[in-house]
Inverse folding.
C-alpha cells in the first residue's frame, strides 16, 4: 500500500488550500449559515476561474477521482458552502456520462463556470427510501412530454437552473422498469417551489410540477431506463463528493473552545482526561472516514464503480459523527446549547449547529438502513428480505 | 497511491494463509489452550523464515518491512495462530537495530519476546510471551535489558489463553541506556501496536466470515436467519469497520517503513506520523474486532457460547490481544498528548 497522494494530486491539493486561504472568508461561511443556502456562486465562480472546477466533475476531463475527492474533502474540512456545488457537479458528471451532445452543449460549459446550479428531484412526499415507487408522471405529448407530480427535499431548487427529475413513464411494468430521467430547466412554466425550513437552518424545498412541458431532448438515458441513470448518479454521489469528514471542522472548533478558560471559573476543558480521550477517538474516526472515502475514490480512479465502498464510508462517517457531536454537546453543557453570536456560546455556536445538523446526515443521500441493506445483500451476500 | 497489496505481499499472503490454515489454525489454537503456544507449529513456522523476515538483509534476515510483516500478522490473526510470531518479529528487529541479534533469535530456534510496559520493581509484569520466551527484552527505568532463561515464567491463566507470565529481570544484560533505550523500546512497541492491529484485522475478517456462514445456514421460522433484517443490520456495519481498520493499519505500516518523521495536523486531519498512526490503528482495530466478534458470537445463538464452536476462540483473543498493552482509554489519552501538544503541521513527510 502507498498512501501518498502522488505529485499531481498533492499539487492540486496545495492549489485548493491556497485558493481557500484566499477566497473562503468568515463572511462567506456566516452568509451560508444565515441564508440557509449552502451554495455560494461567487465562490464557485472563483473556483472555476482558478481552474479548479473542471476537476470537480466525476468522469470528466483529465482530472482523476482522487482529485475530485481532494477538492470536496478540502472544501468540507474548511467548512465552506459546497453542498450546492457537489450536486451541480454530480449532475454534470451524470450528463457527461449518459447525456447527449445537446445536454453537454446546453449544460456542461455553463456548469463549469460556477454560475449555474442543479438540484435533485428523486424523493416525493410518499416515496423516499423506496424511490423506485415514485409516481410523478411524464406522459408523451407529440414530440415532448408533460410532467405532473410533486418532489420533496429538492434542496437548492430555489437556486437551481436545472432539476435532475426522476419520473414514471410506464405504470404497467415492474416499478424499476417504468422510470425515465430528465433534466428540466427550472424556468419551465408549471414548476412551483415552496421552501421547507429545517432545524439545521439549511433550507430545502418541495417542488410542484403542473402540466410541465418538456422537450424530448431533455430526456437523459432511455425511455423507461431511468433506474440505470439513477445507478450512475448514486455511484458518483456516495462517499466521494464530501460529507464524510464533518467532524474535522467540528473538532477544530471544539478544540479552540476547550483551550480557553471555562466561563464559570473552571479550568480549561482541554485538560480534562475524558475530553482528551474523546479528541483522540474523534481524530481516529476522522482518519478512518478519510481513508474509507479515499478508497472509494481510488477504486473509481482504477476504473471501478465504488458504490458499496461509498456506502460503507457514508454509514461509518455519519453514524460516528452523530456519536461525536453527542459527546461534545454533553461536555459543553449549557454553553453548548447557545447558538451563533450568542454571548458565551461554546465554540462560538458550532456545537449547537453541529448538533442540529448531524441528524440529517444519516438520512439524506441514502439512509443508513438503505445502505445497510445494500451492504448486507451485495457485499456480505446475505439473502434478500424484501 | 495504491491501496492494494504489492505482488510480493500477495505472494506472502498466500503462503501464510495456507500455512496457518494447515498448521496453526483454530484447531491448533484450541488444542494449545490454556498455554496458547503450539511448539510443533512454531517449529514448522521456522521453515518459512517468518521469525527473521523483518530483520535487515545485512543482519542475515529477510529484509521485509512492516507492511510485509503486517500481511503475515493479519493471516496469523485470521487463523488465531497459537504462535508468538508478532512479538518475535518485533523483538528480532529491535535486537538487530541494537546490533544484539543472535542466530537463535534470527532463526527462531529460541522464542524472543518483549515486555510492552516498563518493569515494576525489576519485574516485567504480564508479559505477552512471558511463559514461552527464551529471550526477553524489557525496559527497567531507562535501561533496556535482555534476559535469557533456562525456563520461562509461570503461565498465568487468562481470558485469551495467551502465554502470559511475570518475568523477573535478575541477571539481565544491558542492551542500551538513557534515551537510546527509551527510543528503541518505544519504536518496538509501536511496531507491536501496528502488527497487533493487523492481527486484530484478521480476527475481524474471520469473525465476519463465521457470522455470514452461520446465519446463511441456520434456519428458524422456515428461513435462513441471515434473511432477517435485524440480523443483516447487526452485521452490515462490520465490513466498513474491517476495511477502515485495515486501511489505518496499512497506513501505520506505510509510515513506519518511511524514514521521514511525518506530520501531525489535527485541525486538517493530516496525520502521517508513525507513532500516532500505530496507536490509532491499535485502538481502532481492537474495537472493530471486539464488535465483530461480539456480533458474530451473538448471531450464533447459544452455540456461539459453547466451546464447540470457533467464534468463542476469536471472541476471547480479540479482547486479550488488544487489551494486553493497556486500557484503550489510556491509549487515547496518550494519543491526545501527541495530537494536541505535538501538533507539527509543517514538519516531515510530504503528503
Amino acid at each position: 500500500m502507498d498512501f501518498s497522494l502522488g505529485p499531481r494530486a498533492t499539487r492540486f491539493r496545495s492549489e485548493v488550500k491556497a485558493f481557500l486561504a484566499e477566497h473562503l472568508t468568515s463572511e462567506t461561511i456566516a452568509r451560508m449559515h444565515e441564508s440557509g443556502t449552502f451554495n455560494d456562486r461567487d465562490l464557485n465562480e472563483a473556483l472555476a476561474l482558478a481552474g479548479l472546477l473542471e476537476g470537480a466533475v466525476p468522469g470528466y476531463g483529465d482530472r482523476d477521482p482522487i482529485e475530485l475527492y481532494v477538492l470536496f474533502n478540502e472544501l468540507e474540512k474548511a467548512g465552506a458552502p459546497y453542498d450546492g456545488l457537489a450536486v451541480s457537479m454530480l449532475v454534470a458528471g451524470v450528463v457527461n456520462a449518459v447525456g447527449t451532445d445537446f445536454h453537454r452543449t446546453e449544460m456542461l460549459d455553463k456548469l463549469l463556470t460556477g454560475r449555474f446550479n442543479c438540484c435533485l428531484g428523486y424523493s416525493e412526499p410518499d416515496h423516499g427510501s423506496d424511490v423506485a415507487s415514485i409516481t410523478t408522471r411524464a406522459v408523451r405529448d407529440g414530440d415532448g412530454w408533460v410532467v405532473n407530480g410533486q418532489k420533496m427535499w429538492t434542496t437548492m431548487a430555489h437556486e437551481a437552473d436545472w432539476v435532475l427529475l426522476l419520473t414514471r413513464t410506464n405504470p404497467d411494468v415492474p416499478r424499476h422498469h417504468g422510470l425515465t430521467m430528465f433534466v428540466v430547466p427550472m424556468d419551465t412554466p408549471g414548476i412551483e417551489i415552496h421552501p421547507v425550513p429545517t432545524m439545521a437552518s439549511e433550507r430545502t424545498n418541495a417542488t410542484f410540477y403542473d402540466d410541465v412541458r418538456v422537450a424530448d431532448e431533455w430526456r437523459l438515458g432511455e425511455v423507461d431506463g431511468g433506474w440505470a441513470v439513477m445507478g450512475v448518479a448514486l455511484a458518483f454521489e456516495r462517499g466521494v463528493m464530501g460529507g464524510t469528514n464533518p467532524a474535522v471542522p467540528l473538532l477544530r472548533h471544539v478544540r479552540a473552545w476547550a483551550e480557553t478558560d471555562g466561563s464559570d471559573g473552571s479550568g480549561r476543558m482541554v485538560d480534562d482526561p475524558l475530553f482528551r480521550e474523546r479528541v483522540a477517538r474523534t481524530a481516529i474516526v476522522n482518519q478512518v472516514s478519510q481513508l474509507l472515502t479515499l478508497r472509494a475514490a481510488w477504486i473509481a480512479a482504477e476504473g471501478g464503480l465504488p458504490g458499496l465502498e461509498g456506502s460503507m464510508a457514508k454509514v461509518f462517517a455519519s453514524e460516528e459523527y452523530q456519536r461525536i457531536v453527542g459527546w461534545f454537546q454533553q461536555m459543553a453543557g449549557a454553553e453548548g446549547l447557545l447558538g451563533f453570536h450568542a454571548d458565551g456560546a461554546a465554540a462560538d455556536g458550532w456545537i449547537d449547529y453541529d448538533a442540529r445538523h448531524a441528524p440529517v446526515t444519516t438520512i439524506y443521500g441514502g439512509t443508513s438502513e438503505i445502505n445497510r441493506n445494500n451492504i448486507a445483500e451485495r457485499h456480505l451476500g446475505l439473502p434478500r428480505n424484501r | 497511491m495504491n491501496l492494494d497489496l504489492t505482488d510480493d505481499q500477495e505472494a506472502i499472503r498466500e503462503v501464510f494463509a495456507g500455512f496457518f490454515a494447515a498448521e496453526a489454525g483454530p484447531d491448533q489454537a484450541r488444542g494449545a489452550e490454556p498455554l496458547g503456544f503450539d511448539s510443533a507449529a512454531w517449529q514448522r513456522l521456522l521453515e518459512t523464515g517468518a521469525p527473521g523476515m523483518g530483520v535487515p538483509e545485512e543482519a542475515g534476515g529477510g529484509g521485509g518491512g512492516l507492511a510485509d510483516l503486517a500481511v503475515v500478522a493479519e493471516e496469523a490473526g485470521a487463523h488465531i495462530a497459537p504462535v508468538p510470531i508478532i512479538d518475535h518479529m518485533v523483538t528480532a528487529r529491535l535486537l538487530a537495530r541494537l546490533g544484539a541479534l543472535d542466530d537463535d533469535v534470527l532463526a527462531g530456534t529460541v522464542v524472543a519476546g518483549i515486555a510492552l510496559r516498563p518493569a515494576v520493581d525489576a519485574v516485567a509484569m504480564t508479559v505477552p510471551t512471558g511463559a514461552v520466551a527464551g529471550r526477553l527484552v524489557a525496559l527497567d527505568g531507562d535501561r533496556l535489558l535482555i534476559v535469557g532463561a533456562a525456563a520461562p515464567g509461570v503461565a498465568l491463566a487468562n481470558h485469551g489463553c495467551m502465554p502470559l507470565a511475570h518475568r523477573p529481570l535478575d541477571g539481565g544484560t544491558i542492551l542500551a541506556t538513557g534515551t537510546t533505550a527509551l527510543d528503541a523500546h518505544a519504536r518496538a512497541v509501536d511496531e507491536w501496536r501496528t502488527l497487533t492491529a493487523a492481527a486484530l484485522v484478521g480476527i475481524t475478517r474471520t469473525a465476519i466470515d463465521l457470522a455470514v456462514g452461520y446465519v446463511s445456514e441456520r434456519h428458524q421460522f422456515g428461513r435462513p436467519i441471515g434473511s432477517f433484517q435485524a440480523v443483516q443490520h447487526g452485521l452490515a456495519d462490520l465490513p466498513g469497520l474491517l476495511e477502515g481498520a485495515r486501511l489505518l493499519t496499512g497506513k501505520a505500516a506505510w509510515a513506519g517503513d518511511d524514514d521521514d518523521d511525518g506530520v501531525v495536523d489535527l485541525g486538517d486531519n493530516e496525520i502521517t506520523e508513525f507513532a500516532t498512526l500505530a496507536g490509532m490503528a491499535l485502538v481502532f482495530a481492537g474495537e472493530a474486532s471486539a464488535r465483530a466478534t461480539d456480533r458474530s458470537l451473538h448471531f450464533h445463538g447459544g452455540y456461539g457460547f459453547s466451546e464447540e464452536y470457533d467464534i468463542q476462540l476469536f471472541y476471547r483473543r480479540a479482547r486479550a490481544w488488544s487489551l494486553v498493552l493497556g486500557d484503550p482509554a489510556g491509549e487515547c489519552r496518550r494519543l491526545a498528548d501527541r495530537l494536541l501538544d505535538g501538533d507539527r503541521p509543517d514538519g516531515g513527510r510530504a503528503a
In short: Strands of chain B lie at 112-114, 123-127, 135-140, 143-148, 165-168, 173-177, 219-220, 223-224, 264-265, 270-271. The mean pLDDT of chain B is 95. Chain B touches chain A through 55 residues (CB under 8 Å). Chain B is about 55% helix and 10% strand.
